[in-house]
Amino acid sequence: MSNYPLRTLKTALIITLLLMGCVQNLMGCAQHAHQVSDAQEIFSHGAALDLARKFNLDAPGVNDPVQESHRYYALAVGTVNEAIRDGAADLRRDSLYGTALTIKALSLWRLGDTASSKKVADEVIALAGQNSDTDKVWPRDLGICKSLPVLFMIDALADQAKEFAAQDPNDRKEETIDGIMANAAQTQTALDRIVDDPVLKGHPFQFFLAEARCEMANTLQEAAAATAVFPDNGAQKYYAKYNDYRSKALHDLQNVATAHDLGEGFQARVIKMQGYYSRLLQPLP
After folding, report:
1. Using an 8 Å Cβ cutoff, are 180 and 161 in contact?
2. DSSP 4
3. Chunked in runs of 10, what are the mean pLDDT values of the chain (285 residues)?
4. What is the pTM of this model?
């Protein structure tokens, strides 16, 4: 069993989308390359359990989805560690070293170890900066690693929003929600920088970033709604701020395929997710 603390799902990003085809350069039958593929599959099992919880779906044979997903994430970390320990040179030659580290960084994030996740992600970003023929970092892997700090911020924002909403109505203070909204503004700015990063121009990872913006709006919805107890229409300015985040998130999701030249193949996914988030992100009066 992992020594990592159990971490419940704070945000509901569809992280399985990140790793579809993640091992883009599986060379021959190299053992270490297949270990990276195995780590991807193991991670995806954990992500599937997170998704089942997101949509309140049954996970047959699983009594505790949180604990089971953590088991998969910890196993993915161990598999990557083994692959790197025994075959780092092979992975570098096959341009899979950065992919292996990306899977590890994502798994550590899902385990709640953000400090270790960022350290691994920073290694991938530094690797990409070397422009080495043998240490190629794929654009999606680089995008994931650059985005992780923003995902940490969204997680922290979700914690703050839930804590605020759970307070006794008499204990909810304007300075608390003001701090949450200030953090949201910083997160939005950080997310904008990732969206505008030239390395991700025209890349399908933009779809995930649009979804991340929707998840951020979702965390703010709960906090803003909790200000209904404020006297003298004090909630209205927080409703308005949430509605602005909601509108931008849905607009960006609706237009992500055309704005980033992703092609018509992504339009069906956009329509599906737009329907989901349009139902989830209700405007506040």
Report:
1. yes
2. S
3. 51 49 50 87 86 68 80 96 92 90 94 95 92 76 91 92 95 96 96 89 83 92 96 95 97 85 74 88 95
4. 0.84
